[in-house]
Write a structure and sequence with these properties.
Structural class: alpha/beta
CATH architecture: 3-Layer(aba) Sandwich
CATH topology: Rossmann fold
Number of strands: 7
Largest sheet: 7 strands, mixed
Distance between the termini: 24 Å
Order of helices and strands: EHEHEHEHHEHEE
Helix content: 40-55%
Strand content: 15-25%
C-alpha cells in the first residue's frame, strides 16, 4: 500500500479545496485519471460551474457522473485507475437525502464507502465541505443535512491516511499517517 492512498481535502465554500485536490491528484503519474462528479446540475449557473471545472481538469481526466453509488464505482474503477478524485461528498449527501435515503441508509452507504476506500487499488482523493463551523440552520431539513454531512466527514476522515483542511486557499495537513516502516520504535 502506498503512503497517503486516501486523502480527504476539506474546507469551507470557495476555500480552494477542489483546486488543491486536483493539484495533488495531478501529481500521480499515469493515463487513467478518473474524476467522479457528484453534482447534478439543475440550473444554468451550476452547468456553467461544471463546464468551468471540466476545463480546469483538462483532457487527461475521464469524468464519471456518480451522484449516488460512489462506493461500488470506486470498487469497480480503482483496479484499473491510476488515481480517482471524488468531488464532492457534500453534494453526495445531498443527493442521498434527495433520493429518500434515511439516516440508517446513509450510514450504510458511508460504511460501504469506507470499505471501498480501504480496498481501493489506486489513490483516492475526496473533496468535502466543512459544515460544522457555521451557525445552526433554522429548519429541520437543513439541520439534518448538516448533521449527515458532518457524520460523513468524520467517518471519511477516520478512514483517510491524510486529511487536509483548506482555509483561504492555504492547505493545512491536519492528519498524516506515518508509514509503518518509519514509525519510531520504543
Amino acid at each position: 500500500m502506498m503512503d497517503n492512498k486516501i486523502t480527504l481535502v476539506i474546507g469551507g465554500c470557495r476555500s480552494g479545496k477542489s483546486g488543491h485536490a486536483l493539484c495533488l491528484a495531478n501529481q500521480i503519474t499515469g493515463n487513467r485519471k478518473i474524476f467522479m462528479a457528484t453534482s447534478v446540475p439543475t440550473d444554468n449557473e451550476m452547468e456553467d460551474r461544471v463546464t468551468k471545472h471540466q476545463k480546469e481538469r483538462g483532457g487527461q481526466w475521464i469524468t464519471c457522473e456518480v451522484p449516488v453509488d460512489i462506493p461500488s464505482r470506486i470498487a469497480q474503477i480503482s483496479r484499473s485507475a491510476d488515481v480517482i478524485l471524488v468531488d464532492c461528498l457534500t453534494l453526495w449527501v445531498s443527493n442521498l437525502m434527495f433520493n429518500d435515503f434515511d439516516e440508517d441508509r446513509i450510514s450504510k452507504m458511508v460504511e460501504e464507502l469506507q470499505n471501498a476506500l480501504a480496498d481501493a487499488d489506486s489513490p483516492v482523493f475526496l473533496v468535502s465541505n466543512e459544515v460544522g463551523a457555521g451557525i445552526v440552520p433554522e429548519n429541520a431539513l437543513a439541520r439534518k443535512f448538516r448533521d449527515m454531512a458532518g457524520m460523513v466527514n468524520q467517518k471519511i476522515a477516520q478512514t483517510a491516511d491524510r486529511v487536509i483542511y483548506m482555509v483561504a486557499g492555504i492547505p493545512m495537513t491536519i492528519k498524516q499517517e506515518i508509514p509503518v516502516s518509519t514509525k519510531p520504535v520504543f
